[in-house]
Design a protein that fits this description.
Elements (H helix, E strand, L loop, with lengths): L1 H10 L3 H8 L3 H6 L2 H9 L4 E5 L9 H18 L4 E4 L7 H6 L3 E5 L16 H4 L10 E3 L7 H4 L9 H13 L3 H4 L6 E4 L6 H4 L22 H12 L3 E4 L6 H10 L2 E5 L15 E7 L7 H9 L2 E7 L8 H13 L6
Parallel strand pairs: 1-2, 1-4, 2-3, 5-6, 5-7, 7-8, 8-9
Helix pairs in contact: 5-9
Length: 338
């Protein structure tokens, strides 16, 4: 895979072409990679892993990153077990786990029997309310604790600084060559799109919110005008990017190398976790999200600059000159929190 990626990059060196390659379904790549298949088939004694995030569902990226992937990396680095069976439904995030250098024996899909009380679950905790673990099963801690009430609750587990550094080093050390070769982009704007998975797979036990995602929930009405303005002002230092179904290593690389990230309130900003200290995020916050401090708290935890531009409606226009003003301030000054 790395050899193909490297030659592909040399022939097609544009950022957009590499991005398309990074969007390949890694589930298909890994399943066809015979040495990995042999390792799986010979493995035995896999430990059963359950993810139960603090809010929401690990079928969506924000909760998957902090409620599944980071805890699993932490467990992988400290555990004697080398094979895992993933027992919680993680939806389209299966392809991300298939990228990781884990020996995963199986990944369970949606189950109509999760909720035996015939009522719709609003989060993983209610979906798995009747779950009974065997003595050898493992329920990992969830670190999706950046909502204000959870962030301030001393009883909610937090990922330690040491574990965060180890997890980020683990990602950096396993990044494929063709992705590591992507030239850094200083300023990135995230364009929300949609993933068809959530419309195609409807779990009758899940709240209706789980059938929507991305730009269906919210978007920037004048996004194309914002792209034009940022490109005109910052030239090659700027890139407009969408992240649906992209490699986790691609997401790590893009955010880790960025100086300023502009994004609407949503899962993409979870990747602020990958950013270097004293870099900056600018959150576009619709009215309905103004009391949701997930990403301000995440920025505080990761020692990032944070600023916010308010948006009147979920799909409304935003003040483009104000966004430009925030970006210019971020790139010309040190850590900013406003």
């Amino acid at each position: 895979l790395e050899e193909y990626g490297s030659s592909h990059y040399q022939q097609h060196s544009t950022h957009s072409t590499i991005k398309r390659f990074a969007e390949t379904s890694f589930a298909a790549v890994v399943s066809s990679f015979s040495p990995f298949k042999r390792q799986r088939s010979q493995s035995g004694g896999a430990v059963s892993i359950y993810f139960l995030c603090n809010e929401g569902s690990v079928t969506h990226y924000y909760h998957f990153l902090f409620g599944a992937l980071m805890p699993l990396i932490e467990y992988h680095l400290s555990s004697k077990f080398s094979a895992f069976s993933i027992m919680t439904d993680i939806g389209p995030m299966k392809s991300i786990l298939c990228e990781m250098p884990f020996n995963i024996v199986k990944i369970c899909g949606p189950s109509e029997e999760l909720n035996s009380q015939n009522r719709k679950a609003h989060d993983d905790k209610s979906a798995y309310a009747t779950l009974q673990l065997e003595a050898t099963d493992v329920k990992l801690p969830a670190y999706d604790s950046f909502a204000q009430n959870l962030f301030e609750d001393s009883y909610v587990p937090k990922m330690s600084s040491r574990s965060r550094k180890q997890a980020l080093s683990f990602l950096a050390n396993n990044i494929p060559l063709y992705i590591a070769s992507i030239a850094p982009v200083k300023i990135i704007l995230i364009e929300r799109k949609t993933d068809s998975y959530y419309q195609e797979v409807k779990d009758p036990n899940r709240s209706d919110i789980y059938s929507t995602n991305g730009s269906q929930r919210r978007c920037i009405g004048n996004h194309s005008m914002l792209v034009t303005a940022l490109a005109s002002r910052f030239g090659r230092d700027f890139e407009n990017i969408s992240l649906e179904r992209t490699s986790i290593f691609y997401q790590y690389q893009i955010f880790h190398s960025a100086t300023v990230v502009v994004a609407q309130h949503g899962a993409a900003l979870a990747n602020a976790f990958f950013m270097r200290e004293k870099t900056n995020i600018i959150e576009i916050s619709p009215n309905e999200c103004r009391d949701r401090y997930h990403f301000r708290n995440l920025a505080t935890e990761c020692k990032l600059g944070y600023s916010v531009v308010y948006q009147e409606e979920e799909h409304g226009n935003i003040d483009i000159p104000l966004v430009l003003q925030h970006v210019e301030r971020c790139i010309s000054s040190k850590l900013e929190v406003s």
